[in-house]
Amino acid sequence: MPTTTTTFSCFLFTFLITTSTMASMVGAVGVNWGTMASHPLPPHKVVKLLKSNSINKVKLFDANSDVLQALSGSNIAVTVGVPNTLLRSLNSSKKAADSWVHDNVTRYMPNGGTVTRIEYVAVGDEPFLKSYGEQFHPFLIGAAMNIQAALKKAKLDSKVKVVVPCSFDSFESGFNLSSGVNFRPDLNKTMIELLAFLDKHGSPFFVTISPFITHLQTKNISLDFSLFKETARPHNLSHKTYKNSFDLSYDTVATVLSTAGYPNMDIVVAKIGWPTDGAANASSYLAETFIKGLINHLHSNLGTPLKPHKPPLETYILSLLDEDQRSITSGNFERHWGLFTFDGQAKYHVDLGQGSKSLVNAQNVEYLSSKWCVVNNNKDLSNATASALEACANADCTALSPGGSCFNISWPSNISYAFNSYYQQHDQRAESCDFGGLGLITTVDPSMDHCRFPIEIRVSHAEFHRMCNFLRVILLVTTLLASLTV
Ligand SMILES: *[C@@H]1O[C@H](CO)[C@@H](O)[C@H](O)[C@H]1NC(C)=O
Ligand SMILES: *[C@@H]1O[C@H](CO)[C@@H](O)[C@H](O)[C@H]1NC(C)=O
Ligand SMILES: *[C@@H]1O[C@H](CO)[C@@H](O)[C@H](O)[C@H]1NC(C)=O
Ligand SMILES: *[C@@H]1O[C@H](CO)[C@@H](O)[C@H](O)[C@H]1NC(C)=O
Ligand SMILES: *[C@@H]1O[C@H](CO)[C@@H](O)[C@H](O)[C@H]1NC(C)=O
Ligand SMILES: *[C@@H]1O[C@H](CO)[C@@H](O)[C@H](O)[C@H]1NC(C)=O
Ligand SMILES: *[C@@H]1O[C@H](CO)[C@@H](O)[C@H](O)[C@H]1NC(C)=O
Ligand SMILES: *[C@@H]1O[C@H](CO)[C@@H](O)[C@H](O)[C@H]1NC(C)=O
Ligand SMILES: *[C@@H]1O[C@H](CO)[C@@H](O)[C@H](O)[C@H]1NC(C)=O
Ligand SMILES: *[C@@H]1O[C@H](CO)[C@@H](O)[C@H](O)[C@H]1NC(C)=O
After folding, report:
1. Could you tell me which of 310, 185, 169, 332 has the C-alpha nearest to residue 252?
2. Do residues 30 and 54 lie in contact, with contact meaning Cβ atoms separated by under 8 Å?
3. What is the full DSSP assignment across 339-386?
4. Distance, CA 299 to ligand 5 centroid (Å)?
5. Under DSSP, is residue 307 helix (H, G, I), strand (E, B) or coil?
6. Mean pLDDT, the chain cut into blocks of 10 residues (486 residues total)
7. Pairing with 371, which of 152, 298, 301, 471 sits 20 to 30 Å away (CA)?
8. What number does the ligand 6 atom closest to the CA of 224 have?
């Protein structure tokens, strides 16, 4: 009997060693979890969603306490984010950095324990984006150093590493294949300082790689090349032949790090994904092809021409969920990066390493009532388009954009789409379906084939408003009754 147990334990041990070695060889796959949504899925449901899909790494964009609370005890490794807007104060004040670390890191790791497994603090979110100009980048190095010092003071610097997620446009002409690659000239000094800082503390280089955006911006890069298709026409760079856009971008990064004197610095792909709506070639079908291609490529352990058999240390998919309040300055597709819709339903199926071919949906999601706001066809609709545009300024009409899932629904259905989005975002309050008398509340689902008219998630603040209104009515009635009896 003991022999069997020993044999079994030994087998288990070997199995665990083998799988963990394999996992570290392949490089872990995690997800970005953003919360720029009008009605975010409650954090504890998101954590369940992560667990049921065996996703064991998440990257956050801030340090939301409900989110960190929900992650505690989950054994999911976490990257917490410092928003760009805090960089200025964190650069100029060591005290601000100490408080940030105390409030947002130390509090979740009592006595150096691991209640929440915080692995990285990401200082800024793509602070070097060209469109930001000089808004954030001058404060970056100072802020990163102050956060590092604060972690050291809190005796957490051996557990938590400071990183800086860089945008791909930190590199010059990534895809002018005829010229060499370099940091953007205006960033050269900062980047050299950043690499020295990361190297000193043994931190990896976090970078966004976006074959979707590269395809949008570079006529030369075909869709097939972006989607890891075997049949894509290859490109040459520095005497090497590239069969997909990912490798080309990755080696651009590797080349620049190497030229700067850090050929062995680990690279983490901080954001990579394919959107499913809001633009041409943004669809679930292509997103599925892309993510499957990416995962197969990572699992093949082939690496890239410059880094054979050395895939990224970690790869974070953009994104876990759709977010209806993400900025759309770079495109309407920005709100549709999710593997899952805003309410945690899988858009397609892929094996992220969970060992099953399909993703598991979020369970027991609570929605608002089955009600929609549409345009009243019996009214004079000559001003309806103006009302819809006004609604869209606040709500999310990205599905109506060219190439989007609702682009080809005809007028006035597109007006209804806009009205409904506004109505749902305002928790189905009757006055948010007015539109100068043009709105009509219906219980008949106006969704069409490809175009879904969503019903929002019930979130606690909506619950709270409703509760307050109810209490207010009770109070009013009581007061009225009291005054009558007197
Ligand atoms: C960053 O903080 C340091 C120390 O307070 C200060 O000297 C420096 O001017 C700040 N940088 C910028 C760009 O304001
Ligand atoms: C902790 O993080 C939250 C969310 O990012 C932020 O609002 C708060 O200001 C941070 N705490 C401190 C002391 O900076
Ligand atoms: C690409 O780089 C070459 C050589 O540096 C330069 O002549 C050319 O103008 C660049 N093309 C673009 C589109 O930037
Ligand atoms: C960037 O800075 C490094 C170190 O100061 C220097 O050697 C290099 O020539 C610079 N590169 C560019 C493109 O300015
Ligand atoms: C990219 O496009 C330019 C013209 O815009 C062409 O001259 C060049 O050969 C193309 N490069 C590749 C690698 O396809
Ligand atoms: C979508 O992809 C196809 C195939 O590569 C391409 O012809 C088309 O221009 C793309 N559309 C956009 C808007 O990028
Ligand atoms: C790329 O390089 C390969 C071999 O190095 C060569 O056969 C091929 O013609 C090159 N392609 C282009 C477009 O330059
Ligand atoms: C449309 O808007 C104009 C300008 O605000 C207004 O004068 C007109 O009465 C409106 N028409 C209808 C049918 O509401
Ligand atoms: C809208 O486009 C989709 C595919 O893009 C197509 O399947 C559908 O039939 C179209 N609907 C209408 C009403 O044209
Ligand atoms: C709805 O479609 C009409 C006709 O195609 C167009 O003029 C209008 O701008 C669209 N409105 C919205 C909100 O997309």
Report:
1. 169
2. no
3. SB-TTS-BSS---SSSSSSSPPPP-S--B--S-EEEE-TTS--TTHHH
4. 31
5. coil
6. 41 40 61 97 97 96 96 96 98 98 95 84 97 96 98 96 96 62 92 98 98 92 97 89 95 92 97 98 98 96 94 97 96 98 97 86 97 96 94 96 95 97 98 96 95 94 48 53 51
7. 471
8. 5
